[in-house]
Amino acid sequence: MSVVDAREAVARAHRAEWARVVATLTRRFGDLDVAEEAAAEAFATAVERWPSDGVPPSPGAWLTTTATRKAIDRLRRESKRDDKHKEARLVHDDDPPEPAGALEDERLRLIFTCCHPALALDSRVALTLRLVGGLTVPEIARAFLVQETAMGRRITRAKAKIKAARIPYRVPSAADLPARVSGVLTVLFLVFNEGYLATGPGTDPVRQDLTAEAIRLTRLLRALLPEDGEVAGLLALMLLTEARRAARVSPGGDLIALDEQDRGTWDAALIAEGHRLVRERLATGQAPGRYQILAAINAVHTSARDFRDTDWSQIVALYDQLVRLDPSPVVALNRAIAVAELEGPAVGLAAVDGLGDKLAGYHPYHATRAELLRRLDRVDESRAAYDKAIELAGNTAETAHLTRRRDQLG
């Protein structure tokens, strides 16, 4: 096997098995640092050995076994302390199995255990994205719109707090699940978003592995909490967004905007399932949460056979509801885009410009300004806004799209 083939096999295994390996080691050793470092060492060993030994029949089992040995070696090196001796005993095959809890999936269990209420929400999300989603620190930093160094410190502090406070890694009971759902949904949403439009310049523009994993875990969460409206809303949002994946990137690697997409390539089955979930939630008569409103917005978009048929008044009304729940500048920006379609680009631009102080480093803000300025024939200002958006964008497909739009100005 060539080195290139082996590295590709390791990359595939990382996408498929990283979270499972980390989850298994976390459960057995009770230490996130041990689990993460041992998993990383196992993948590094695979890079060294698979070119000559070949890819094992079961890469996940090979990686878990190798990581477990790495963890044992580390614990033995530190075995002068009694607590490390106790941890090392956990690897014995004759130990009693852990009692079954409410969560049977290792990766979903790891999400819940990382999202412990003792941690700040941002720390829970960042830590879980790293350990479960397999995202790198730069990817997580871009998802949070913060500097990479700051995100690295946030993750380090979260691990330190877990260790210092002796926060247990246990399967939540059924009674504990509702209180822990909010942080978990945020994690799944951000993992899906990273797959929907990957931020790394060297990655594929759409990472189906991440979107598929986020959908799979959200389906499992819905099976556990079938009456939770926000779980259903998030699943509907993911399905309606994933349905458009085939139409979002051109054969040349250029991102295709919603108004230019071939709607005939959208996945009708996913759209039907997403619409059904939205209707079910509306039928309950309960006040919708953030994810349910976002799903309803996407349901309006996917109900239109043509972009020109979009019911923008309904979308603006839904954003009005969302702003009351989530008055963030990003939500305000998306509402302004809908307002521009309903009331014209001048009205939309006025709303967008009011967000400049809060979104100066957010490339969709500059891309939105560029498009609205373009529609107003303010060519020089539009070009400058495109330049800024291109400078800040990390995704290659999005950069290609913005460059094409800018160059069309002449």
Commentary on this structure:
Keywords: Sigma factor, Transcription, Transcription regulation. Residues 75-94 have a biased composition (Basic and acidic residues). Residues 180-280 form the DUF6596 domain. 69% of the residues lie in helices and 0% in strands. By secondary structure, the protein is an all-alpha fold. Among the domains are: 3-89, Orthogonal Bundle (Rna Polymerase Sigma Factor, Chain: A); 341-410, Serine Threonine Protein Phosphatase 5, Tetratricopeptide repeat. The longest helix has 27 residues, at 3-29.
Beta strand %? under 5%
Number of strands: 0
Radius of gyration: 23 Å
**Low-confidence residue ranges:** 87-102
Spell the H/E element sequence: HHHHHHHHHHHHHHHHHHH
Family: Belongs to the sigma-70 factor family. ECF subfamily.
Domain RNA polymerase sigma-70 region: 20-80
Domain DUF6596: 180-280
Region (Disordered): 75-99
